[in-house]
Specification:
Elements: H1 10-17, H2 32-84, E1 87-91, H3 104-115, E2 126-131, E3 138-146, H4 153-156, H5 162-171, E4 185-194
Helix pairs in contact: 1-2, 2-5
Bound molecules: heme C (HEC).
């Protein structure tokens, strides 16, 4: 597997490179393990992002942390995608980053998750399906990201502070991702695999 190094993203990659070689993303795995591989990637995405978000909030408060989230979230998604051969991103019905807007069958599945963001075990629900056929077939995995009071409400809640709101508007003039209440679906991690391992 070609491991790429991006010098410009040193802070993100220093953290990521510590866990790059855990073998979570082997090729040609049996279909049943796609859910497991996806869940492991989703866990890492969230742990990495949450770690950086909390550190940034402690340093610069929520307003300062927005810029960090703006850069770090897409960088983590890209890095995990490069490593695994899957396409990894975050999607939403009401989006902040314009490219997160869920469309087509993604949107339909996300609406299902919005109806019940938690599974029977009390953990974020997930859904898996296959689209296309032959060479263009892909296996998709979505895992719900439920809204929480801490730390999410500062930037996605019903009562976002004016300085935070101003910063959001600067970076995301078409933001639709405030006004969420705890337990609602905020979005999902979407992971799409080529159906037969990596090309
Ligand atoms: C410091 C402010 C801040 C906090 C706190 C925060 N977010 Fe975000 N969130 C953002 C920003 C900024 C983006 C857009 C990032 C990007 O450009 O990819 C975002 C994007 C997202 C997205 C991707 C979909 C979209 O709308 O772009 C999800 C899902 C999400 N946040 C969930 C959460 C959850 C759940 C929490 C609490 C654990 C949380 N966020 C806490 C600022 C924040």
């Amino acid at each position: 597997m070609a491991k790429r190094i991006y010098f410009g993203l040193a802070p993100v990659l220093l953290i990521l490179s510590a866990c790059v070689s855990n073998g979570a993303a082997s090729t040609d795995a049996p279909d049943a393990s796609i859910s497991q591989k996806s869940a492991a990637l989703a866990d890492r995405f969230q742990a990495d992002l949450q770690g950086q978000l909390m550190a940034a909030m402690q340093q610069g408060g929520a307003a300062g942390a927005i810029a960090v989230c703006h850069e770090v979230a897409p960088a983590i998604a890209q890095s995990l995608s490069d490593e695994s051969g899957a396409q990894i991103r975050r999607i939403a019905l009401k989006q902040r980053n314009p490219s997160a807007l869920a469309q087509g069958d993604m949107r339909q599945k996300l609406e299902e998750l919005a109806a019940s963001p938690l599974g029977p075990d009390g953990k974020p629900a997930s859904v898996r399906w296959t689209s296309g056929a032959g060479k263009s077939a892909r296996v998709h995995y979505l895992r719900a990201i439920p809204m929480k009071e801490q730390p999410c409400a500062a930037c996605h809640g019903t009562n976002v502070a004016p300085d935070v709101q101003a910063r959001i508007q600067e970076l995301y003039p078409d933001d639709r991702a405030t006004g969420f209440r705890s337990g609602e679906l905020r979005g999902a991690i979407a992971i799409s695999w080529p159906a037969r391992g990596r090309p």
